[in-house]
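Morning!

As promised:
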Amino acid sequence: MIESSVQHLLDHAARRDPQHAAVEDPAHGSITYGDLSALSDRLRDRLVQCGVRPGDRVGIYLRKSIDAVASIFGALKAGGAYVPVDPWAPPARNAYILNDCAVTVAIVEKRFLEALRAELARLGRVPTLLVLDGTEGGRSLAAALEQADTGSAAPPAQTVTPASDDLAYVLYTSGSTGRPKGVMLSHRNALSFIDWCSDTFRPDASDRCSSHAPFHFDLSVLDLFMSIKHGATVVLIGEDVGKDPTHLASLMAERRLTIWYSAPSILSLLAQHGKLEQHDLAALRLVLFAGEVFPVKHLRALQRLLPHPRYVNLYGPTETNVCTSYEIPVPIPDGRTEPFPIGTTCAHLRTKVVDEQGREVPPGQEGELVVSGPGVMHGYWNLPEQSARAFFEDESAQWYRTGDVVVQAPDGTYTFLGRRDRMVKRRGYRVELGEIEARLYSHPNVKEAAVVALPDEEGATQIKAHLVWAADRAPSLIELKRFCAERLPLYMVPDVFSFHDGLPKTSTDKVDYQRLKDL
Amino acid sequence: MDQISDAIRAFILTEFLPGERPEDLTGDTPLITGGILDSLATIKLVSFLEEQYGVTFQAYETDVDHFNTVSDITSLVLSKLGPGRAR
């Protein structure tokens, strides 16, 4: 059957096997396909009652949970695009996001409500807020709907069949101008990618897939929609277990996961601290990772502990989701230390390497990777100039500029070399150093701020802020970290601060970032 | 109690706040929401406490509701040691 929308993936799976477990939350139970479909139908009816119309945005401000999955599908069924925010990011940043894309309704957990409402009020517009007491296995959403129904039940609405170019979700990533930017992705974007996953990984209903990435991170698109398309079971991994290697290893074994997908950083931790040798992970058949370079030392350690699964390096920015892939040999040959290639182009996309003028360069010559095809985003929400800059057209297609510098080997595989701009990756997340600088400049005592990223001894990204401070007494590290943590997601808070009388400048009086890196 | 909280403060200062004035880290300083303990730092602190005091932690116990201040962490360790073993 040809699927026309992401939400129909769920309804088709529910019709095939309504009793099969769709989602498991190890902390709060599980839900079958039939119940997940019915719960999201009820939310759809309520959202339509609240005024959600096709094309509207619906904010999701919930912890990782069955309630959040049902909310995503409820929003889609109402014809909306879901906008998931990181519930642990500062409320001011999340309010900015929900206000920026003008959500009609936001589904919010009570513990975040007060702070969010205050921040939204400050921005001048408070959308309809559907409040959940908690996030407990779908029961919290059901209870909230029950309560909303006591006034009058929402009349049954139709599940919307969107056009393939209609938006399915908007994912906000760090923005270089100091504000997060919303990447607009359509049903066609999602489905073309998921179809590629089907062909490449051959999942079926017996698979049990991890959902490690939070829903505002694009890895979750594979986790949720590939699994649900095939009637498999998604195992949700909450934020607390997700960063804790010993508990994570137990969970992988107890839940008999067959497919794992995450950023490399947590896999490195699992290899080092997970005590994997104490667990039976025989069910695991596929280990997928994306988001940043996996240091070979840790990847080799992981393979020694878990030699039986296939390992695949997936690469791609949020704007395209995965666009290249590379299967890692098992075992990794002794003596290899350089990172593996990002691989070859996914079948649903086209890629090439271009120079500054957009002219294709031959294999062996470095250049920027550009991407074309049905997986590529529609642009950035409400940012026409940045959207225009992200693309260029030639006689054959419209191309998205990834900003990533790569080189192609004669056999066609790409190797990632670095960035053209000041974006870095930290634990798989995109971090625009300019966004950190913009927030630092909002401190009354910051005269100048320049932020650089440096590798630490483990090869992970360390963020260092150089400041020119206006007051006599330098602030405490605790004060500065707190200032940042109230304005930025935790993964963007600098590790180190250093103070200077002035910042080094180039001959054109710009901050000399190269010299700062050596300080 | 004081010994445990002093040990936790000393560990955090050395590992995650090098150069910080010790008096600026109080029992109520927010650690997770204050940007001091990220996920990797939390793992290091948990391993330190597990080795030092022979206790183990559930994943949810290291979240923002239970692990956000030196006072919270001290109470958590004490509750695991039990009344007879508090030092």
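Chain A has four domains: 34-186, 208-345, 350-373+380-418, 427-516.

Hope this helps with the figure draft.
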